[in-house]
Amino acid sequence: MRHALKLGVLLLSLASGDVAAEPIVFGQTLPYSGPTSGWSTIGKVQAAYFKMINATGGVRGRQIQQLSLDDAYTPSKTVEQTRRLVESDKVLFMFGSLGDTNQAAVQKYLNSKKVPQIFIFAGGTRWNDPEHFPWTMQWPPTFKTEALLYAKYIQQSHPNARIAVLYQNSDFGKDYLKGLEAGLGAAAGRMIVARASYEPTSPTIDSEMATLASSKATVFFNATTPKFAAQAIRKAAELNWRPTQVLALPSASIQTVLEPAGLDHSVGIISSTYMKDVQDPQWASDAGLKKYLDFMSRYMPGANAADVFNVSGYLAAQALVHVLHECGDDLSRENVIKQATSISNLELDMLLPGIRLNNSTNNYSPIGQLRMMRFDGTSWKLFGEVLAE
Predict the structure, then answer these.
(1) How buried is 230 (Cβ within 10 angstroms: 0-12 exposed, 13-18 middle, 19+ buried)?
(2) Which residue, among 26, 23, 1, has the nearest Cα to 10 in the 3D structure?
(3) What is the CA 167 to chain-centroid distance, rounded?
(4) Is residue 37 within 8 Å of residue 105, measured between CB atoms?
(5) What's the rounded Cα separation, in Å, for the pair 137 and 170?
(6) Which one, of 31, 111, 59, lies nearest residue 319 by Cα?
(7) In 3D, which of 62, 375, 92 has the Cα closest to residue 233?
(8) Is residue 382 pLDDT above 80, yes or no?
(9) Residue 13's pLDDT is what?
(10) Which CATH number applies to 143-273?
(11) Of 185, 206, 341, 389, whose CA is between 20 and 30 Å from 356?
(12) What angle do CA 245, 252, 296 make, to 5 degrees?
């Protein structure tokens, strides 16, 4: 089923004699259906954010029109929908599309057309390659940066660990595995005692988890997407396998992953973040959090403001509005990518203190800092300092 979120363009009243400025039209593909549809809330919260921006005058008097189409997390569908957006809808650029394998399927096409592919929700190292793909840039920290941080944590806190890794058989999972191996260095061969991969189309990962549990590993690295992350946490409990669990950031959602897995099974899980946790009382009087919660109550009533996917979608939307403001009156594709890749010390409402967006023509990855966190059964608790690769 094809879904489309379209933000209506608010035109200035013709009766007043004013001429409406051309809207800023951009495209996006997300999984509104299929096993990873939990991620679709990213596009929904962004649609709401741009609605708010339009209601207050838009960006420099221009309305924003987001065309967000369903690709069901299927690369062939991503290609079909992206071509439709570029060739039929004539979008100025692509923004916030999701999935490493999905975006890899359209990366060469978009670069050949010189269509900016910006703030994509994909963490592979391939996205920070301005020399070969100057029209593509990512949003989240690279999976390698994240996995290097986990490797450092494991070596410091569990120096004699036996590690089991579950990863998706795609660029997503393979980058996590490579990052962990690189971070462990010479110790990787000794410390990683079991590896198992699964296909994105697999119904379950029960057999893979049984294999990993039989290794009697003391640390479990869960490098999976939300559906499988929840299955893995629950299956570990069913198997009475109680390792220290490290969970990939894209699946570190209490609502989408930990609650379905069972909060009692999730206590003690380690992950990382660059965002404030809505449920953490330390941010109760934080101005940025108050602004975010006000937006959610007004423009996303009934949605869960604490969902990390809503927070990350909100942040990326804020960053895009900054870029469009910086473009001024030059809304060429060349200027859009120029402004998107020259961000300096940008603070956003829901970024953790000390973490800011920075990139350049030589470094297309805007988020290079993270903090570790541990789930206590109710919320994520930060520990350690802000760390960078």
Answers:
(1) buried
(2) 23
(3) 17
(4) no
(5) 19
(6) 59
(7) 375
(8) yes
(9) 35
(10) 3.40.50.2300
(11) 185
(12) 160
Mean pLDDT of 302-312: 93
Six token digits for residue 358: 């920075």
Rounded to an integer, what distance in angstroms lies between the CA atom of residue 288 and that of residue 310?
A: 15
Instruction: Parse the chain into domains and list their residue ranges.
Output: 4-141+286-368, 143-273
Rounded distance between C-alpha atoms, residue 98 and residue 174, angstroms: 17
Helices (H), the chain: 41-55, 75-83, 100-112, 143-157, 171-184, 188-191, 206-214, 226-238, 259-261, 263-266, 287-299, 308-327, 333-340
One fold for 4-141+286-368 and 143-273: yes
What does the alpha-carbon distance between residue 281 and residue 185 come to, in Å, rounded to a whole number?
38
Is pTM beyond 0.90? Reply is: no
Residue pair 95/26 in contact (Cβ under 8 Å)? The answer is yes
Per-residue pLDDT at 3 exceeds 60: no
- Quick: pLDDT tens for 198-252: 998 899 999 999 999 999 999 999 999 999 999 999 999 999 999 999 999 989 9
pLDDT score recorded for residue 181: 97
Cα(234)–Cα(236) distance, integer angstroms: 5
pLDDT at 146 over 60: yes
Q: Which residue has the tokens 């595995």?
A: 177
What is the SS3 string spanning 287-298?
A: HHHHHHHHHHHH
